[in-house]
Design goal:
The protein is α+β, with helices and mostly antiparallel strands and 145 residues long. Helices cover 27% and strands 24% of the residues. It contains five helices and six strands, in the order E-E-H-H-H-H-E-E-E-E-H. Strands 3, 4, 5 and 6 form a four-stranded antiparallel β-sheet that branches. Strands 1-2 form a two-stranded antiparallel sheet. Helix 1 (18-26) runs parallel beside helix 2. The longest helix has 13 residues, at 41-53. The two termini are 34 Å apart.
């Protein structure tokens, strides 16, 4: 992972994991202050649900891949050359953000198999209450595989 030093702070460039980076930037106990990236609309909305529940801020600009995609967006009433704010991406506080680690990452460990047990870590954030739950689960491998 590339690392750049500026004003005594480390900046890491994410090659993927933009959802995790956005969520980490909105958490109070994180060492990440800001996450900037370019990703897909589904990932932006998923991230916005978690960030809104955490009381954070997300902004997004639509960047269509080609003219056909832009035309479909215009036909759907979307705005280009416009900065969408958090409350425009997520209009309700009745949201849930749920993620389970598949591979090791900045939010949690990936799936592990230890003997006959499968271990997972998940994060659940409820929008209405702002409650954050970290769940460690153990599964009996012979019941799943």
């Amino acid at each position: 992972m590339d690392e750049i030093r500026r004003a005594g702070a480390a900046t890491r460039l994410l090659r993927d994991g933009d959802v995790a980076g956005g969520i980490q930037a909105a958490r109070e106990n994180s060492r990440i202050d800001m996450c900037v990236g370019k990703g897909g609309s589904p990932e932006a909305i998923i991230t916005a649900c978690g960030i809104q529940a955490l009381g954070g801020l997300i902004q997004g600009i639509l960047a269509p891949g080609d003219e056909e995609e832009k035309k479909r967006g215009l036909d759907a009433g979307l705005k280009f050359d416009y900065v969408y704010e958090t409350n425009e991406m997520v209009k309700s506080d009745n949201t849930f953000f749920v993620a389970t680690g598949v591979t090791d990452g900045m939010l949690f460990s990936g799936v592990k198999k230890l003997g006959k047990t499968i271990l997972t870590e998940s994060l659940v954030i409820r929008g209405r209450s702002g409650t954050v739950r970290t769940i460690s689960a153990e599964y009996k491998a012979d019941r799943w595989l």
